[in-house]
Amino acid sequence: MAKLSKAFLKVRTPLSKKEQELSTLSRRAREIDTYFTAHDVKSIFYNKDKIIYINPKPKKSNFLNTHIYAFNERDYSELNILLCQIAEKESELKRKGYNLEGVKSFNRNVWLDFSRESNAIEGIIADFPFDLLDFRVKLKEKIDTDPKTKDFDPYDYYKYLSSVDKMFVGTEDNNDKGMVVIKGKTSYHILSPELMRQFIGFKYAYKCAKQDRFKRMSKQGDGENQSKVEKANRIAELILQINALISGNPLTRFRNSQVYVKGTNWVPPNEDLVIDNLDALCDFFVNDETCSNLNPIEKAAIVHAEFIRIHPFMDGNGRTGRILANYSLIKDEMPTVSIRYNNTQEYFNAINKAIEQHEVDDLISIYYDGVYSSATKIWECLNYIEKTQKPKTKLSEKQKE
352-363 burial, b if ≥16 CB within 10 A, otherwise e? Predict the structure, then answer.
């Protein structure tokens, strides 16, 4: 019998789990390198600290379907200190018996201001004077009544707020548009239906975010009893309901035709891809493994940019996207952000840069400045309450300690 060569007798040793992982990573890295080189975008990512991928279920590792957002790390310590001071101050004032209704009133003014500025960015101008801490939402005594957070049913509340739209009657302006008359603390405000719909959409998102925070803190149905699919479906439903509220059309649907965004060099995905892309965004939103490494401001900016890139509706995408970003911030215990009409071009440039060049630093900066500004105003509001009020209850010696 002929003697077999050593080479023929050599048996290949199976790869270990670690070696398999390294091999897979190397293969993926080569695919990414090939894609970046082919599209001349490779250099963008060399100096970035973080790169986030939103993957709408590509077939056979088709990297063209993966959407990329790169950004540098930044220092959030100054903001974190301010937010901690606010939390401590609010807790202290509650303990001492101060009435913090002024903070709630302040928040309602912020929502109204957000609604005015957000509409103005889209060319829906509604200029009106109102005094800070004066605005109260009392449209036929309906909108001012809110369910308790723990008893809050999102769909029932959505139907309730949808019915409010039928009350939008009152005076008429020169263009024969119905106006909404709202009673403030010291005066009446005459507002447009578009403004009130945006306000109601923001109010709805705020309530949903507060409930999500409540569930997370009390461990009621969030995480343990609710799957990622269920959470993602809830975000998708939330997006539909926000758009329905701001449009005044409860039958709102995702778009069924191709759209183009004026003044940009990017094109939203084909209508057949909207659902897959939106599903991927919702999956990203509820993915704790990915989002736990992001600051809430970074997460809100990325969600905002990706939502605008998808452009899932025929109308109202910008307004819905800005509310969605604020929902993300509120859910993560951050103050809300109102992007100013005067900064429209800066904001559009930041959105386009995030989508076209995959760099989201500018949009993160806009949101950081907005959060810091809101936090500063809340801090000033709390100090004003402490300075001008007298606490209703006297602390015992034990409480003082």
Answer: bbbbeebbbbbb
Nearest to 171 by CA among 191, 200, 187, 154: 191
Residues with Cβ < 8 Å from 11, sequence gap 6 or more? Answer: none
In whole angstroms, give the CA distance from residue 82 to residue 376: 8
Q: Which of 177-181, 203-207, 362-366, 377-381 has the highest mean pLDDT?
A: 362-366
Q: Could you tell me if residue 239 is inside a domain?
A: yes
Orientation angle between helical segments 361-388 and 317-331, nearest 10 degrees: 60
Cα dist. 4→10, 11, 12, 22, 60 in Å?
10, 13, 17, 34, 41
- Residue type for 367, please? Y
pLDDT 10s digits, 109-144 = 788 888 889 999 999 887 665 554 455 555 545 565
Instruction: Give the domain CATH number at 274.
Output: 1.10.3290.10
Q: What is the pLDDT of residue 93?
A: 93
| Domain annotation covers residue 266 | yes
> What one-letter code names the amino acid at 274?
V
Angle (CA) 382-387-388 rounded to 5° is 100
Asked if residues 128 and 190 have their Cβ atoms less than 8 Å apart, the reply is: yes
Mention every residue, 6+ apart, whose C-beta is less than 8 A from residue 18: none
Mean pLDDT of 202-220: 82
Q: Which two tokens stand for residue 148?
A: 């308790």
- The structure tokens listed for 81 are 């200190």
Q: Over the stretch 6-42, which tens digit does the pLDDT of each residue have?
A: 444 444 566 676 776 676 666 666 666 666 666 555 5
How far is the C-alpha of 236 from the C-alpha of 243, rounded, in Å?
Answer: 11
Q: Give the C-alpha separation, 100 to 98, whole Å.
A: 6
Q: Which of 365, 385, 292, 368 is nearest to 101 (CA)?
A: 385
Provide the number of structural domains found in the chain.
1
Q: How far apart are CA 299 and CA 320, in angstroms?
A: 16
**Neighbour tally for 306: CB within 10 Å:** 24
Which pTM value belongs to this model? Answer: 0.82
Kindly state whether residue 329 falls inside one of the protein's structural domains: yes
Residue 231, domain extent: 71-131+194-388
